[in-house]
């Protein structure tokens, strides 16, 4: 979680939190973010939360305080970025700066509140999902050590490395990483995808119908109806994946050593159609980089 938080903050809005520093410091933003997520989830099971909010008591009182921490953090980022964009040290390399640069050409396209919401959406999308998937990936290779061996061998071959006893540093291996080299790591991509098939980061998801509709199987949906689907269960259905649906097998994604994607309506971990995850390729890239370093230098 610390690694992916640092990553999305750097890429998303050019801020280095340093939460993965050796001393593992407390990060008020991260703590507030988790608390807010937890309390909002509890609302699903607490019918009295509107009363608590109106009276400013209980969990809702804590929520109000922690939301203030989030708002202060995001407002400071926007203020700092605006000063940088106006000065000589202009940089548009992070996503927030690109949003704000667009605002210069199309004034009032995004309000500060919308920019704050964008920052939180980046964190929601970029932190937990990748961290959860990497955690399950480590679990899967512990149960299936031959997969870890295959990933290790692939890392050596693609990066032109010797055995890990040769004394490479993390930096030396990381410098050999590029979009091109990582894109040739088909087995690692398959292992990550197989992890997501069995342990999707969002195991259950739902949508609210914007209008009356009819689903492909003839089911009628009325405006406002909530439709849920469960990628966790879909990844375990034999009629979709065969008799070995419960077996962790990266080879099911490979043909002659090359990764073969499935329809996103079958493999729905990243959603499908117009709402498919915009950060899918970025998430794979980050997870493959992390896995390459971890499995080259450590045995699990």
Q: How would you concisely characterize the structure shown here?
A:
The protein is mainly alpha-helical and 300 residues long. It has 13 helices and six strands.
What can you see in these coordinates?
GO terms for molecular function: heme binding; iron ion binding; monooxygenase activity; oxidoreductase activity, acting on paired donors, with incorporation or reduction of molecular oxygen. Its cofactor is heme. Belongs to the cytochrome P450 family. InterPro entries: Cyt_P450, Cyt_P450_E_grp-I, Cyt_P450_sf. Keywords: Heme, Iron, Metal-binding, Oxidoreductase. The chain is mainly α. 57% of the residues lie in helices and 5% in strands. It has 13 helices and six strands. It has helices at residues 2-13, 28-42, 49-55, 58-86, 95-105, 112-143, 145-159, 170-174, 179-183, 186-198, 231-234, 238-241, 280-297, and strands at 205-208, 213-214, 220-221, 226-229, 254-255, 258-259. It has a two-stranded antiparallel sheet. Strands 2-3 form a two-stranded antiparallel sheet. Helix 6 (112-143) packs across helix 7 and helix 6 (112-143) packs across helix 13. The longest helix has 32 residues, at 112-143. The relative contact order is 0.10.
């Amino acid at each position: 979680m610390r690694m992916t938080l640092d990553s999305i903050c750097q890429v998303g809005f050019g801020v280095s939190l340093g939460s993965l520093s050796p001393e593992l410091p407390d990060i008020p933003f991260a703590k507030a973010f988790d608390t807010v997520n937890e309390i909002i989830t509890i609302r699903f099971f607490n019918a009295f939360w509107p009363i608590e909010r109106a009276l400013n008591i209980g969990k809702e009182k804590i929520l109000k305080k922690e939301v203030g921490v989030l708002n202060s953090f995001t407002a400071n980022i926007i203020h700092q970025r605006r000063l940088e964009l106006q000065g000589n040290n202009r940089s548009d390399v992070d996503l927030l700066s690109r949003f704000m640069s667009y605002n210069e050409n199309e004034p009032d396209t995004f309000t500060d509140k919308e920019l704050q919401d964008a920052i939180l959406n980046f964190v929601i999308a970029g932190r937990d999902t990748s961290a959860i998937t990497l955690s399950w990936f480590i679990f899967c290779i512990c149960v299936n050590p031959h997969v870890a061996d295959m990933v290790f061998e692939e890392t050596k071959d693609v990066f032109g490395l010797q055995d890990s006893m040769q004394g490479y540093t993390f930096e030396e291996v990381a410098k050999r990483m590029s979009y091109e080299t990582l894109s040739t790591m088909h087995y690692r991509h398959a292992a990550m995808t197989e992890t997501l098939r069995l342990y999707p980061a969002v195991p259950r998801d739902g949508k609210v119908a914007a209008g009356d509709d009819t689903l492909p199987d003839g089911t009628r949906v009325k405006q406002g109806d909530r439709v849920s689907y469960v990628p966790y269960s879909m990844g375990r259905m034999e009629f979709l994946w065969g008799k070995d649906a419960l077996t962790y097998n990266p080879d099911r994604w490979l043909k002659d050593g090359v990764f073969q994607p499935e329809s996103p309506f079958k493999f729905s971990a990243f959603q499908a159609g117009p709402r498919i995850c915009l950060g899918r390729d970025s998430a794979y890239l980050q997870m493959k980089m992390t896995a390459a370093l971890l499995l080259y230098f450590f045995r699990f």
